[in-house]
């Protein structure tokens, strides 16, 4: 029987239901060319083990999707399923997600939002797109992004450790003052061990080339993206797109306080602690750093 006929029958049944009229089973069976005995056999059939497993997997996929704040796509969900012992392909997970009507949050491309400075001729790109340092606190990157609220824009300044992609410090402000960037840097310095050489990469925005910025980063090696080239700072740019697409854009944000609560919930209760990252071998940033330090302790134990 063609799909068109099935759709027509479904439409007739739906119209009858809306009009509170009974549907003639005999009439429908005759229309479909199905015997009454075949219909009753279909009604009484017990789902196969394969069908039961399929529905169980779909339920688990939905659970993982919801636990990720409805952000994970097929690759990450497949990874989580395999960790629990499920043998399944990414293609099958994608098919089931389509049947469930769920999908990953799409991340829009970067846009250029900063202007070059008069100090640009002296700015060097020490990082040179080397985004995979061998240890924590070897390379940090920083950027500022805007967040729309009904009460006006607020601005998120973030610092990421490139080793784990962890956001080690952030500040939400109502202006683009240099002091907001300085506050974020001071938070990062207070929380992390920077006794070894450290590169701090940013774009060429006015906050990052100010005298106060250069003063507070005097013990670091400052690195800057090329003019109008956001890919030099791709990781932090990607994160700011991510937090908007996965979380902030779902809400009609009222004001600064509402925005702060949302940013805090995403960063402190999900991104750093739970959200798996392909760069981190499908661990959270916190777990990835903890594994690094565990290996360091184990090596020291063996040496001693």
TrEMBL record:
Name of a matching Pfam family: rve_2
Segments forming domain Integrase catalytic: 132-293
Entry-linked PROSITE patterns: INTEGRASE
GO biological process, one term: DNA integration
InterPro entries in alphabetical order: HTH-like_dom, Integrase_cat-core, RNaseH-like_sf, RNaseH_sf, Transpos_IS3, Transposase_IS3/IS150/IS904
Gene Ontology MF, one: nucleic acid binding
Function: Involved in the transposition of the insertion sequence.
Protein name: Integrase core domain protein
Organism annotation: Dorea formicigenerans
């Amino acid at each position: 029987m063609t799909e068109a006929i099935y759709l027509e029958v479904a439409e007739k049944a739906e119209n009858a239901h809306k009009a509170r009229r009974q549907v003639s089973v005999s009439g429908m069976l005759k229309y479909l060319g199905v015997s009454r005995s075949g219909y009753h056999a279909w009604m009484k059939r017990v789902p196969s083990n394969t069908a039961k497993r399929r529905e169980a997997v779909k339920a688990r996929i939905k659970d993982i999707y919801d636990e990720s704040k409805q952000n994970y796509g097929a690759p990450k969900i497949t990874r989580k399923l395999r960790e629990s012992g499920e043998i399944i392909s990414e293609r099958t997970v994608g098919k089931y997600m389509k049947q469930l009507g769920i999908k990953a949050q799409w991340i829009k491309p970067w846009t250029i939002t900063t202007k070059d400075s008069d100090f640009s001729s002296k700015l060097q790109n020490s990082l040179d797109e080397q985004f995979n340092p061998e240890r924590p606190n070897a390379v940090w990157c920083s950027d500022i992004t805007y967040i729309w609220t009904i009460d006006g824009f607020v601005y998120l300044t973030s610092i990421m450790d490139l080793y784990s992609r962890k956001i080690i410090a952030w500040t939400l402000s109502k202006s683009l003052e240099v002091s907001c960037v300085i506050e974020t840097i001071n938070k990062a310095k207070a929380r992390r061990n920077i006794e070894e050489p450290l590169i701090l990469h940013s774009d060429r925005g006015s906050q990052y080339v100010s005298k106060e910025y250069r003063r507070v980063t005097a013990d670091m090696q400052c690195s800057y993206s090329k003019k109008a080239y956001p890919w030099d700072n791709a990781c932090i740019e990607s994160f700011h797109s991510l937090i908007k697409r996965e979380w902030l854009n779902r809400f009609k944000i009222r004001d600064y306080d509402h925005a702060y609560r949302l940013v805090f919930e995403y960063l402190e209760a999900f991104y750093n602690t739970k959200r798996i990252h392909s760069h981190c071998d499908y661990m959270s940033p916190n777990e990835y750093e903890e594994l690094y330090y565990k290996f360091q302790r184990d090596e020291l134990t063996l040496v001693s």
